[in-house]
Amino acid sequence: MTTHPLLSALIPLVDDLSRDLPAQERYRRLLQALRELLPCDATALLRLDGEHLLPLAIDGLSPDTLGRRFRVAEHPRLAALLDSTQPTRFAADCPLPDPYDGLVLGHGAHLEVHDCLGCPLFLDGQAWGVLTLDALDPARFEGTDLDMLAGFASLAAATVKAAQRMEALARRAEDGELRAEAYREAASPADSRGMVGHSAAHRRLLKEIEVVGASELTVLVHGETGTGKELVARALHAASARAARPLVSLNCAALPDNLVESELFGHVRGAFSGAVADRRGKFALADGGTLFLDEVGELPLAAQAKLLRVLQGGQLQRVGAEQDVHVDVRVIAATNRDLAEEVRGGRFRADLYHRLGVYPLHVPPLRERGRDVLLLAGRFLEQNRARLGLRGLRLAPDAQAALLAHDWPGNVRELEHLIGRAALKALAGSAGRPRIVTLDAAHLELGTPAPAEAARPQVVAPATDGDLRSATERFQRDAIAAALARAEGNWAAAARELGLDRANLHRLAGRLGLR
Question: Cα angle vertex 380, ends 378, 386, to 5°?
């Protein structure tokens, strides 16, 4: 074969180096050129991140592939590509499992044997990632000139390196808006912390994390339950100058009222019954680093006053101690409550609210993130595939449509649990133990979404005797009382039925006069 096809594929890519393109578009063109050079059914570009390979771009594979993290030790074909310095073709009868089995688009059967070709990418002599090609025809790559693929891989590596250099130069520019945002997305360390997404809402969140993370401002992360506020806190800590220091987390809702101050500030021996030794609190443990206060809206008012003092001057007093202790801690708080409403209701201190909310950061709900749901599903599918010891775990087209149509009131946490349950149901319903398991819409049990907004039943607000708050409190009292009656007075069982943490239920019942 002459070099003309290779030159035809390389020339547009070289031309792209002078264009200001988003990373996804640049990588899409790279894979498109690769498929024109070597016709196949699917290609992928993956970047090495520690022990995992992360897909940066795909062509011909299921969309959820972008959300997966391929652990190299669990995928011998990918490991073989990384161990080699040249392109590798795996024979059709190769016994090694293929990471893309069942993920090639347009093929409904459980394909396990097909033609597979790949090569490593090196930057400055170090393995950076791999390019892979897959074909449904077992003989597709017979007679392929592997040197031609090696030449293409050299340009691909040069493209990535040029992109990284462009990013480095952009980061040094005074005008941060000139940075190539898509390049940051491809190389962002947030990927390794589990923050997955390409939607506009997710990109805005990452941008805000980058902006405020490097500061010392106190951040109030707010959003619905299950949106991943703790992941945001970790990303903020990692983006700060305190990244090498500890990140200490505390769930304020899980603390009994009589132990809140001890957990936050520590205590000295003999301070109260059971205090048999001195104990350092979370603030002392986080000294020099970051303290993450999850569900901060659940703190009792007495603890809020002492927390405010620490935030104002860095001075805290352990329970039972006479001397103050100084700490250097950055606080990140999170809540799914409307703290402004809590302040108006007298349940949260206004001065503490303003001190915590120096920089409010909103985490968007999953329903506002579009096709990110498929990327996140891919992440959870790969986790469950490894956990269940399967060769492949994939979504059928009707399952993908059901995920995209669902409203996700429980957000990412609901999706994670849903994928785990569906995987077990699909495996249990299979004859024998298949190597590849497909999840369809029936396994998800999400129901049939309404075809249009007009088809949804109208919700009529019930008549209320008084203002909305009073009506809401009456409804909460009735719901808690009914749940307790069904649970025969068992508060833990009632909390599970109501979908609440037991400590949250106790506090809510106390506010409503039920305890």
Answer: 105
Q: Is 248 helix (H, G, I), strand (E, B) or coil?
A: strand
Residue for token pair 């390389």:
10
State residue 32's pLDDT score. Answer: 86
Q: How many residues belong to the chain?
A: 515
Sign for the CA dihedral angle at 153, 139, 77, 44 comes to positive
Measured between alpha carbons, how far is 172 from 163 in angstroms, rounded to an integer? 15
Q: Which tokens sit at 374?
A: 């498929």
Sheet holding 88-90, edge to edge: 70-71, 52-59, 42-49, 126-135, 115-123, 88-90
Secondary structure class of 210 (helix, strand, coil) = helix
Q: What is the DSSP string of 349-394?
A: -HHHHHHHTTEEEEPPPGGGSTTHHHHHHHHHHHHHHHHHT-SEEE
Write the DSSP symbol of residue 73: G
Beta-ladder partners of 424: none
Helices (H), 188-316: 200-213, 229-238, 260-265, 282-285, 301-313
Distance CA 446, CA 448 (A): 7
Burial, 448: exposed, middle or buried (Cβ in 10 Å; 0-12, 13-18, 19+)?
exposed
* 285 token code pair: 């443990």
| Euclidean distance between CA atoms 459 and 33, whole angstroms | 52
Can you give the pLDDT at residue 396? 92
Token pair of 432 as six digits:
């024998």
Q: How many helices (H) and strands (E) does the chain have?
A: 19, 17
Bridge partners of 117, per DSSP, are 89, 133
CA angle 249, 254, 258 (to 5 degrees): 105
Judged against a pLDDT cut of 50, whether residue 287 lies above it is answered with yes
| Whole-number Å distance between alpha carbons of 182 and 26 | 10
What is d(CA 515, CA 437) in angstroms, rounded to the nearest whole number?
A: 49
Token pair 């101050």: residue: 261
Buried b (16+ CB within 10 A) or exposed e, 327-340: bebbbbbbbbeebe
Do the Cβ atoms of 422 and 395 come closer than 8 Å? no
Regarding beta strands 359-362 and 392-395, do their DSSP bridges make them parallel or antiparallel, or are they unpaired? unpaired
Inter-helix orientation angle 491-498/468-486, to 10°: 120
Q: How far apart are CA 408 and CA 172, in angstroms?
A: 40
For residues 118 and 45, the answer to whether their CB atoms sit within 8 Å is no
Q: What SS3 class is residue 70?
A: strand
* Pair of tokens at residue 188: 């962002």
pLDDT digits (tens, 9 = 90+) for 245-260: 999 999 988 888 778 8
Q: Residue 186's pLDDT band (boundaries 50, 70, 90)?
A: very low
Report the alpha-carbon distance of residue 226 to residue 278 in Å, rounded. 36
| Inter-CA distances, 412 with 295, 376, 390, 504, Å | 17, 8, 23, 21
pLDDT score recorded for residue 441: 93
485: its two tokens: 């009656």
